[in-house]
Design goal:
The complex is a heterodimer of chains A (351) and B (290).
Chain A (H helix, E strand, L loop, with lengths): L2 E10 L2 E11 L4 E5 L6 H9 L10 E4 L2 E2 L10 E4 L11 H10 L9 H14 L15 H14 L4 E5 L7 H18 L2 E6 L2 H7 L2 E6 L2 E6 L1 H6 L4 H6 L4 E4 L21 E4 L4 E5 L8 E8 L4 E8 L5 E7 H7 L6 E6 L2 E2 L8
Parallel strand pairs in A: 3-8, 3-9, 6-7, 7-8
Antiparallel strand pairs in A: 1-2, 1-4, 4-5, 9-10, 11-12, 12-18, 13-17, 14-15, 14-17, 15-16
Helix pairs in contact in A: 2-3, 2-4, 3-4
Chain B lengths: L25 H30 L3 H10 L1 H34 L5 H13 L2 H12 L6 H6 L8 H12 L1 H14 L2 H8 L4 H30 L2 H7 L9 H10 L3 H31 L2
The chains are: A alpha+beta (351), B mainly alpha (290).
């Protein structure tokens, strides 16, 4: 089922959480709401779920074209997974999963055999069938997360909403679980929105990323689109490391054959560390010179901290370790930089 | 579960082994322990022993005769009746107040929180007196009540009112920190799963607070049975009619029936002991179950 939100506004006292936000999630997609804390992403998710309501008269929420703005959460058929799972602590895993079916009105309620069958099937789906009799406090974070997911799915929701689904897990479980979620989503094909502040997570598993900042949507696109063509300095900086350099200092440093420099009004150029190529200084060329200040070679890539000779600006550069070996660089060596791809934001974006 | 927020006393932890330098010398440890034990013996154990010793000083027969006397039985019955009304009333109020304060944001919340503590701050005698001033013959509603032949002061309703007031904070005080610590996420998930307000209360909120609630009920019950000051002011001390157990103890004592007074008092002391046992059982259960 598709989800649409139009012109959503929400204020908490003097604080504006959402200022006219639009969202369009097509049927069956896995969409990430990505943004720093306080950007309004969780509020938007809760409004879609019906746990909060938009300010009166401000906007509408549509599920599959039907207006559900005034429908309470219990009637929207959404599966919601909370950041800290919010499992019922006094119920076993099985009872947690069965809860949504047991609270149905008598005529809509399946028989207890049917409920048990469904709960076990869901626990199998999330690979936890052996733990049905355990209590939430006896489970690990990743297991609780999956119980919460099974519980949300028990009521046969039409959309799945996940609030920081991996936020409370440690780094390794996080990585496993997010790949698992991607596969899981491909399996069940349920329209899913998840909130995260982790750009790596969003870019890795989402079909589409909605980047939010300060109560607004900054950009919507596939992970590749938003990474390669960021619509604003905020998006550029939020999606990975970036060097912000004063433009005049870099004259001639751009890719050969590219349009001549048009410094943006704020005179700044954005370049990612891996988009900078280094050449030995004595080989000539027109790139700006820089001094190597620090080499950090642990890990898959080498990270170098350079200082531009002319402007004394710090520049972070990421090159492969074989390149580093080829250049045979040491601290305080002189190199030339060539910027493969840069952005400035005088207009939409530029190369 | 967060048992720590329920129990006012720290639960037992495995003893940490301190490095030698951090340990106090042996004589200091022994001295401190001795002081604590002596204090305990003198102020707690001794009175308790005295109560039971005096109660049985004239033999078991006298003890039984005293507690089976019609006035004593009436006092016991009145105390039980009061408790049977007061405790459920305060459970309903306490749960409602704690629910409102812990799960919702509203104007005047801190005022409500403060008001709940009022009975703890006011002397029980004063609270009794307030009811006399409001409902007594010379009070605000006195003439109207007399005209309609309704008796509150020097009758059972007054005793119930005064006891309710005095024991008002126990349940709410016990639940508020517990419910605040538990937050509202579980209720919200129940909402998204389609549960109604009642279902959420009975199936999610109440089971989560059951031990804290039980604990509050025990404290409330103990205080309701033992309340003297406020009840003394509104009761009128009519033997066999408006005397509760503590008041009956006082009357017996004033009549120099020391053994009789202690016999009835020992029943109240027994209740206190039962309360302590129940409290320990609850704490043990709380830490023992998931």
């Amino acid at each position: 089922m598709s989800i649409e939100a139009h012109g959503i506004r929400k204020k908490f006292g003097a604080y504006t959480a959402l200022d006219g936000v639009d969202l369009n999630v097509p049927q069956g997609k896995l969409v990430a709401l990505l943004g720093p804390s306080g950007s309004g992403k969780t509020t938007l998710l809760r409004i879609i779920a019906g746990l909060e309501f938009p300010d009166p008269g401000s906007g509408r929420v549509l599920f599959h074209g039907d207006d559900v703005t005034d429908l309470p959460a219990g009637k929207r058929r959404v599966g919601f997974v909370f950041q800290h799972y919010a499992l019922f602590r006094h119920m076993s895993v099985f009872d947690n999963v069965a809860f949504g079916l047991r609270v149905r009105r008598r005529r809509d309620r399946p028989s207890s055999a049917a409920i048990a069958e469904r709960a076990h099937r869901l626990l199998e789906l999330v690979q936890l069938d052996g733990l049905a009799g355990r209590y939430p406090s006896q489970l690990s974070g990743g297991e609780r997360q999956r119980v919460a997911l099974a519980r949300a799915l028990a009521v046969e929701p039409k959309v799945l909403l996940l609030d920081e689904p991996f936020g409370a897990l440690d780094a390794r479980v996080r990585k496993d679980l997010r790949r698992w979620l991607r596969r899981f989503h491909d399996e069940i094909q349920l329209t899913t929105i998840f909130v995260t502040h982790d750009q790596e997570e969003a870019l890795e598993i989402a079909d589409e990323v909605v980047i939010m900042n300060k109560a607004h949507v900054e950009q919507v696109g596939t992970p590749q689109q938003v990474y390669d063509k960021p619509a604003s300095p905020f998006v550029y900086q939020f999606l990975g490391n970036v060097n912000v350099l004063r433009a005049p200092a870099l004259a001639g440093a751009r890719r050969r054959g590219a349009a001549p420099d048009e410094p943006s009004p704020d005179g700044q150029i954005y370049v990612r560390p891996h988009d900078i190529e280094l050449t030995p200084h004595d080989a000539g060329g027109d790139g700006p010179s820089a001094i190597v200040r620090h080499i950090h070679a642990a890990g898959p890539h080498a990270r170098l901290l350079l200082e531009q000779v002319q402007s004394r600006e710090q520049v972070e550069v990421e090159i492969s370790r074989s390149e580093l070996a080829e250049l045979n660089l040491k601290t305080n060596d002189l190199v030339r930089m060539r910027l493969r791809q840069t952005h400035s934001f005088d207009e939409d974006y530029a190369i | 579960m967060a048992p720590a927020s329920v129990a006012p006393f720290p639960t037992r932890r495995p003893r940490a082994v301190l490095p030698r330098a951090a340990r106090d010398p042996a004589w200091a440890r022994w001295a401190l322990t001795a002081v604590a034990l002596a204090f305990l013996a003198f102020f707690l154990v001794l009175p308790l022993v005295v109560v039971f010793a005096e109660a049985f000083s004239k033999g078991l027969g006298f003890f039984l005769a005293t507690v089976r006397e019609p006035d004593a039985l009436a006092a016991i019955r009145l105390t039980l009746l009061t408790v049977a009304i007061v405790v459920p009333a305060n459970v309903v109020f306490g749960v409602a107040a704690a629910w409102a304060i812990a799960k919702f944001r509203f104007r005047g919340k801190s005022l409500l929180t403060t008001l709940i503590d009022l009975p703890f701050a006011v002397s029980p005698v004063i609270s009794g007196l307030v009811y006399v001033l409001v409902f007594g013959a010379q009070g605000w509603f006195g003439p109207w009540l007399i005209a309609h032949n309704i008796r509150i002061i020097f009758a059972v309703p007054g005793i119930v009112l005064a006891t309710t007031f005095v024991t008002f904070p126990f349940v709410a005080r016990e639940l508020i920190p517990l419910m605040q610590a538990q937050g509202t996420d579980e209720e919200y998930s129940a909402v998204t799963l389609g549960a109604s307000g009642w279902q959420i209360f009975w199936r999610v909120t109440l089971p989560n607070i059951r031990w804290g609630l039980f604990y509050g009920v025990i404290l409330c019950n103990a205080r309701a049975m033992g309340e003297f000051g406020a009840v003394s002011v509104v009761s009128g001390h009519i033997r066999g009619e408006t005397n509760t157990m503590p008041l009956h103890v006082e009357i017996l004592y004033n009549e120099y029936n020391i053994a009789g007074a202690f016999a009835v008092a020992s029943l109240l002391a027994l209740l206190a002991l039962a309360t302590l046992v129940a409290k320990s059982v609850i704490e043990w259960r709380q830490t023992g179950t998931p």
